Amino acid sequence: MTRAKTIWRRATERLQDEPDGAVTVTRTLLETVCKKILSETGEEFGAQDKLSHLCRRAVSVVLPSTATARNNFPRFTQAAASLMDAITDYRNDVSDAHGSADEVAIDRHHAEYAVSLAGATVVFLVECYRTTKITA
Predict the structure, then answer these.
(1) What's the CATH code, domain 2-135?
(2) Which tens digits make up the pLDDT trace of 33-51?
């Protein structure tokens, strides 16, 4: 997942001077990791699939059903999918992903929050995937 590391570095580097760009790159990071996991496990996905859908599918691939059935864990995966929808919406509203007639200011701490939450989700998915690969 070398590409994911490069994207992560870009997201964190942009936080200081380009918080809107950091949010754009963060969304790219999430999508890249989910698609990489799905691709490497032979799961098909469409170019137009929503990020939250990709997330749910990636989670279902990397977590055994016994893990998701215990301890209300499905709430975590639902929250991750919801988070991805929120980051996508936030990116669409305030990031540099789309042109705008008006300049929209984004507070750095809001971008840091989005980047941090996405980073935690990515680490979780990658570590689950690595564990799944090792035990398979």
Answers:
(1) 1.20.120
(2) 999 999 999 999 998 898 8
